[in-house]
Structures are given as structure tokens and as C-alpha cells.
């Protein structure tokens, strides 16, 4: 498919081939079918009505019956079911009106921008020869929430560039990105409280009724940072708290705060990490991007042979640089501690990959974070080998955790991300040999990345997203280590390891393009290859929690007021 579509939504386009198996029933007569469908709808038997409608051979009658079913599903709040029914209708004005109504109804339930309606608007507004597999049976698909990378069917993580097809698509994106929230949730708050226990109960109730988890739940009421954790044993509450606001959807489809454009915390990530830091979890998670030994061996031999022939001519530099990538080949992605198809895994792999690209000068890190080559002095150039093997990895940084004297209030102090470094060397067999040391240039890049991480997070949302994940990991480790769930008599319910709540699944990244680059210094080609990953071990950070008497007062001001039934968040008293 050659249609360049939807840059601003960062939605994956992929060509699909599928085999379908159809089970056909004897076609129903139109008159009988209409009466039968009406009877099923009157009884609230939507699936039975749907089965009858689908058996009608006349296309016009079938579409009319499906429209009636979708209308009733929307009216009764069966929004997920209505989505499936709508997709069986032809793309016409009736379907568009129902899709709009479904999006409006979901917004009233506390959700944000509806990507299903946006996708249908895009599909209806794009002109031939564009084809969509949902409509035409061949062509492309659109998936939600891409953030600058995609994973192809083989598991290869690759960077993407996108272009809009028309100005109309840009207009649709602008119209669809605003989250429709009530005034209370849209308001800014310096300390918004989200009761994990009440939220879990509300999610469990929706799941038991076959209802979707609404956007307000998925975005944790607009929290974009966690600064406190509270436990109220007498009411069975475990509460996370921090600054919050309303949110809107970025050009990449990421929900971001209307106050500072930072990503909101995600329920999927919180549940994933609660399961990692639990009695049955691994208590640590991360990823590693590793070059293959045979690729390193071939790269080392190629570079050494090239250097022995002297300086390259200007015309030879381009082909030579392309060969570097080909010789090294792909790097393998290893993920541990969290499901490989989780959003947490996707974010940490992408953040790690982009950090490395900044380090070797293939992505711009800004004036405060120059790449490795820019940091090199002439003396260092003379001292390095023709192939520098570097290791950079990201980990959790936190100044400390305070607690109240009664162990019911906790404050997280200045959590962030730490970049660390090591120099390695490649032997004749292509093995990377650890040295346990980091030379000045390597160490300086890591220090700059750490010091200016918040600036990087402002310009690249994946870094802010990873910082949120690190915050939630620290909270999950604290809940586990301090036995806060036990103190609140909370078994984690549907959020537990084998609980009914299922976070979204993403294509698992298995390989990435190799992170390698070169630069010519006085006729000498310096080649840099980078490995490393992300490692989050929060337990040491919560092992020594200091006591602070003032936190008791914070807990008092944050205590839940009398809330309406089903309400799971509130703003702390001023």
C-alpha cells in the first residue's frame, strides 16, 4: 500500500493477509427477521438479535437491522459491543452518525478522544485508491497509540516517519484530540488523590457487567506524577497522589496533561508493575539491547581491514558507512520482569533505543546533551581504537522516600532517571568484554543525559513516559515492601497477578536496527557501537525509608471526604 497517511496520530499501517472461515446459516426472510430482531431487542438479547440480522441475505434489510441493534447497544451503554456491530455496517452516513453518538456516549462516561470514531472518520474521508482491510478486505489497518516506532510482524522495532494525506485529516485530528471531561476532573490540582482500592472495585464492577474501562480510569484521573502514597487501614484505602489536570491527545495519540503536555499515568502500566512488585512477581524489570556476536566479529574485521588501507576517499565514505550497518546486522531485544507484549516493555525499549541514537549522533539531544563524537577531544581521538564498544543503560534515580511516624503516609523525593556508562572492548571472536570502567567522554555523555533528563522529557514524550513508569515502579515496590495492601486488607482483586483486568497487548519488540555510527577525525574513522538497556530495581530505594513527622499532617488533609458511590478520586483539601 502506497498511501502515506495519518502522520499526526502515529498509528501503525501494516499490510495484512488473513484466512477467513465462514459458517453460514439458512438466510432468514426479511419480515420474519425484523420481528425476531425486535423481540430480541425488547428482551435485551443483543447477541441473539445480531445472529438473526447477520443471516439476512438482503443487504439493505441487514444494514437496517444492524443499525437498530447498534442504536440499542449504544442506548444501553454496551459501547464495546456496539463497536463490533458498527464495523459490520457499510461506511455511510448512518454508520457515521452512530459512531459519533457512540463517541459522545463514551465521553459522558468519562472517556477521552475516541480513536475508533477517528479511525472511521479517516477511512471515510480518504479517497480511492486507498483501501482498508476492515472495509475492503485488503489493504491497510490503523492501530492506536504509536509513539515514533513500530514493530513489524517479525518483531523488528523500527523508527517511523509519517505524512498527512490532506489538510482535512489534520483538521480531524485537531477535532478529535480534546478529552471531554467534567469540570472537576479537568481542573488542575496540586495534589489529586486516586484510591487504588476504590478504583479496583469500580473496574471490577464494570468488568463483571461486560462494560469497558473508561478513559478517566485508564488515565488515573489525570495524574502526571506521583509524589505521595497513603494508606488508611480503617477504611481499607491505598491511595496514590500527585499533581493532576485534564488531558488532551497529542499528535502521536498520547494522552498528555493540558497543564504541561506531560503524559498522564496509565492504569495499564500501574497494574503491570503492581504484578511485578508483588509476592509472586520478579521484583525487578528491564530490557537489554544486545549486538549479536557474529555481527560484532564481522564489524571488527571490516573496520580493521578498512583502517589498514588508509584514509577513505570522500566518495567512499557513504558506501563504507552503509556497510557498517550491514556487517553488524540486527541487535536482539531481551525483556524481563514484565510481559514482553506490555506497554511498559514497549516504552522502556523505545526510550533505551532513542537514548542510544542521541548518544551516537543519529538523534538530536539538544545543546545540553551533545553526542559522544562531539564530546571527544583530539587527545581522546588519538587514544581510542578503531572500534569503540560502549554500554549505556538507564535506571531509577530517587533522592529518598520519607514516611510518617504511623507508617501511613509516604513521600517520594525527586525521582528521575539515571544514565550509566561503561567502556567495553570487542575481542577477535566478536565478544564484548566488560571493563567495569568508563572513560571521560563516555562518562560525560551519561552525566549530561542524567542532568538534563527533564529537558529531554519535555522534547520527547517517550522519556517522560518512562519517567512515569519509573515512578509507578517505585510506588509498587513501596506497596509491596511496606505491606500496604495487607494493612488495608486489600488482596488487589482484579489487579492481582491472576486478576481479570487485562492490560492492552502490543506487538513484542524482538530486534532493532543496530546502533552504530562513525566520524572521521583527521583522516581516521572512529566507529562507535552501543549496547545496554534499562534496569529497574526499586527495592534498594525503598529499603531505608526515613521518618518525617510532618507527613502525618499531609495525610490528614488528603483523607477521603464523603464521596458519591463509585467515586474513586478526589482533590486534597487546601
UniProtKB/TrEMBL annotation:
Keywords: Signal. Residues 1-30 form the signal peptide. It comes from the Bacteria. This is DUF1598 domain-containing protein.
Amino acid at each position: 500500500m502506497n498511501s502515506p497517511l495519518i502522520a499526526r496520530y502515529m498509528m501503525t499501517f501494516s499490510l495484512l493477509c488473513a484466512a477467513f472461515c465462514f459458517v453460514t446459516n439458512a438466510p432468514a426472510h426479511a419480515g420474519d427477521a425484523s420481528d425476531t430482531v425486535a423481540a430480541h431487542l425488547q428482551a435485551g438479547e443483543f447477541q441473539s438479535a445480531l445472529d438473526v440480522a447477520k443471516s439476512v441475505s438482503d443487504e439493505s434489510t441487514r444494514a437496517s437491522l444492524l443499525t437498530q441493534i447498534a442504536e440499542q447497544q449504544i442506548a444501553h451503554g454496551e459501547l464495546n459491543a456496539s463497536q463490533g456491530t458498527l464495523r459490520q455496517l457499510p461506511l455511510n452516513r448512518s454508520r457515521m452518525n452512530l459512531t459519533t453518538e457512540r463517541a459522545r456516549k463514551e465521553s459522558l462516561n468519562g472517556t477521552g478522544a475516541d480513536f475508533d470514531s477517528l479511525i472511521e472518520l479517516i477511512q471515510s474521508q480518504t479517497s480511492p485508491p486507498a483501501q482498508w482491510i476492515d472495509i475492503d478486505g485488503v489493504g491497510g489497518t490503523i492501530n492506536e497509540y504509536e509513539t515514533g516506532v513500530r514493530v513489524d510482524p517479525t518483531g523488528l522495532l523500527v523508527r517511523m516517519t509519517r505524512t498527512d494525506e490532506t489538510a482535512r485529516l489534520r483538521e480531524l485530528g485537531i477535532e478529535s484530540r480534546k478529552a471531554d471531561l467534567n469540570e472537576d476532573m479537568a481542573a488542575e490540582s496540586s495534589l489529586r488523590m486516586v484510591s487504588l482500592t476504590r478504583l479496583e472495585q469500580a473496574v471490577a464492577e464494570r468488568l463483571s457487567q461486560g462494560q469497558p474501562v473508561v478513559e478517566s480510569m485508564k488515565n488515573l484521573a489525570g495524574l502526571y506524577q506521583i509524589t505521595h502514597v497513603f494508606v488508611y487501614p480503617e477504611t481499607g484505602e491505598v491511595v496514590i497522589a500527585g499533581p493532576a489536570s485534564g488531558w488532551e491527545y497529542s499528535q502521536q495519540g498520547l494522552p498528555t496533561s493540558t497543564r504541561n503536555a506531560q503524559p498522564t499515568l496509565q492504569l495499564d502500566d500501574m497494574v503491570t508493575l503492581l504484578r511485578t512488585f508483588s509476592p509472586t512477581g520478579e521484583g525487578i524489570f528491564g530490557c537489554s539491547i544486545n549486538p549479536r556476536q557474529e555481527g560484532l566479529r564481522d564489524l571488527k574485521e571490516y573496520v580493521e581491514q578498512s583502517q589498514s588501507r588508509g584514509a577513505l576517499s570522500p566518495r567512499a565514505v557513504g558506501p563504507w558507512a552503509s556497510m557498517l550497518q550491514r556487517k553488524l546486522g540486527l541487535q536482539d531485544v531481551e525483556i524481563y520482569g514484565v510481559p514482553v507484549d506490555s506497554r511498559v516493555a514497549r516504552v522502556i525499549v523505545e526510550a533505551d533505543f532513542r537514548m542510544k541514537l542521541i548518544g551516537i549522533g543519529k538523534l538530536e539531544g539538544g545543546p545540553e546533551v551533545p553526542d559522544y563524537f562531539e564530546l571527544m577531544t583530539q587527545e581522546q581521538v588519538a587514544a581510542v581504537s578503531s572500534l569503540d564498544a560502549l554500554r549505556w543503560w538507564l535506571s531509577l534515580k530517587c533522592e529518598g522516600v520519607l514516611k510518617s511516624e504511623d507508617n501511613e503516609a509516604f513521600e517520594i523525593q525527586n525521582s528521575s532517571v539515571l544514565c550509566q556508562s561503561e567502556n567495553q572492548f570487542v575481542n577477535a571472536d566478536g565478544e564484548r568484554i566488560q571493563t567495569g570502567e568508563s572513560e571521560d567522554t563516555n562518562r560525560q555523555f551519561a552525566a549530561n543525559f542524567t542532568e538534563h533528563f527533564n529537558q529531554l522529557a519535555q522534547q520527547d514524550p517517550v522519556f517522560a513516559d518512562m519517567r512515569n513508569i519509573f515512578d509507578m515502579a517505585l510506588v509498587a515496590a513501596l506497596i509491596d515492601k511496606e505491606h500496604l495492601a495487607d494493612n488495608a486488607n486489600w488482596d488487589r482483586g482484579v489487579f492481582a497477578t491472576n486478576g481479570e483486568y487485562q492490560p492492552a497487548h502490543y506487538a513484542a519488540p524482538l530486534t532493532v536496527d543496530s546502533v552504530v555510527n562513525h566520524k572521521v577525525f583527521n583522516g581516521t574513522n572512529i566507529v562507535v557501537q552501543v549496547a545496554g538497556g534499562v534496569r529497574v530495581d526499586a527495592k534498594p530505594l525503598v529499603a531505608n525509608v526515613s521518618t518525617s513527622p510532618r507527613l502525618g499532617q499531609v495525610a490528614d488533609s488528603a483523607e477521603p471526604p464523603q464521596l458519591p458511590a463509585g467515586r474513586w478520586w478526589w482533590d486534597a483539601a487546601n
